[in-house]
# Entry
Amino acid sequence: MRTSDTIKPQLERGIDMTKRELRVPQLSPNMSQAVLIAWEKEPGDSIDPGDVLYEVETDKVVSQVEADFTGVLQRQCVAAGDSVSAGDLVAEIALTN
# Structure
């Protein structure tokens, strides 16, 4: 069986499980450290665009980080209360169509 034969039926059923790494955004030009203060989604939860995934606190503000994709949260790589920097990996997502 050719690879395209196995992938095409999955795409037609909306099961394309492409993975995406979720990283801490650069919330301000001077951001050096932040604290991930709360997860709003747990592993196994469905995610839609606009859903709040987690909250992060910098020295000036608490920000909610929203999804811009559809998928399922596979793994949290950082616990609530952990320090993070811009670009740090915080979660792995399985994207769905």
Summary: The chain has one domain: 18-95. Residues 3-12 form the longest helix (10 residues).
